[in-house]
Amino acid sequence: LKAMGINDLLNFDFMDKPPMQTLVAAMEGLFALGALDEEGLLTRIGRKLANFPLDPVLGKTLVGSVELGCSEEVVTIVSMLSVENIFYRPKEKQAQADQRKARFFQPEGDHLMLLAVYQAWKKSAFSKPWCHDNFIQARSIQRAQDIRVQLTGIMNRYRLALESCGRNFKYVQMAIASGFFTHVAKRDPQEGYRTLVEGTPVFLHPGSALFQRNPEYVLYHELVMTTKEYMRNVMVVQPQWLLEVAPNFFKKSDPNKLNKRKRMEKIEPMYDRRLAHAQDAWRLSKRRG
After folding, report:
1. DSSP states of 15-70 as a string?
2. How far apart are CA 48 and CA 29, in angstroms?
3. Which of 90, 108, 139, 266 has CB 3.0 to 4.6 Å from 112, enough for a Cys bridge?
4. Mean pLDDT across 154-178
5. pLDDT score of 261
6. CA separation (Å) from 39 to 10, 31, 45?
7. How far apart are CA 42 and CA 38, in angstroms?
8. 62: helix, coil or strand?
């Protein structure tokens, strides 16, 4: 609607108007992505996002990859994320399927593993027998190939450069973070992780390449609720990247101030006026009675 020149969304005559809160949240999300300015108008980035038939976070990931010089890799990853799970694990061959999947392992996480799978399939000349031998869903990966062709066509039409970063995956990770910066979680000292935005307890999916590796910060593609809320398609991320790729959303904290959660966790020493003169008055070992 913004790309069509309809700027006043709150008063627009929708046939089935969404709740006001939903509209406001959507515009706040677009502002955080850099797609809207402070007046609610489309930015240069917003006009680029409008060209792609994608969720804005995936579109921003693609646009960010052009600026970081890794669009060849990221357009493949975005295409692979746009289809159903490409791996299958038959009950009678679970161990064998796990061994084949482990061949594609990348220390950066699942996003780079998806890239490794697609590149290996490409080297096999997009072979169906290769998919069968490696427990890859042929229909899903072929659908990803179709999406990739469509996206690269749009990028060529709008003169968005397709460049490869080779093995310098830091730029790929930063490009993905530029779109999914609200999908970041920090390792919880007690158990699992907590999302940075809401503080929601979440856990690494057992099928993730990062399962039991437990990096400090991770970025996830989506949350899946079963017995716990699991993060699916997870990647290692560095917190300092978030300041660079999402300046509308994150800012560097003041080291002299504590956030609300830290203030609640802080343990204040017990104070006794009668012992105020004593340097160690707060210590429990100095208490009598």
Report:
1. SSPPPHHHHHHHHHHHHHTTSB-TTS-B-HHHHHHTTSSS-HHHHHHHHHHHHHT-
2. 16
3. 108
4. 95
5. 61
6. 13, 10, 15
7. 10
8. helix
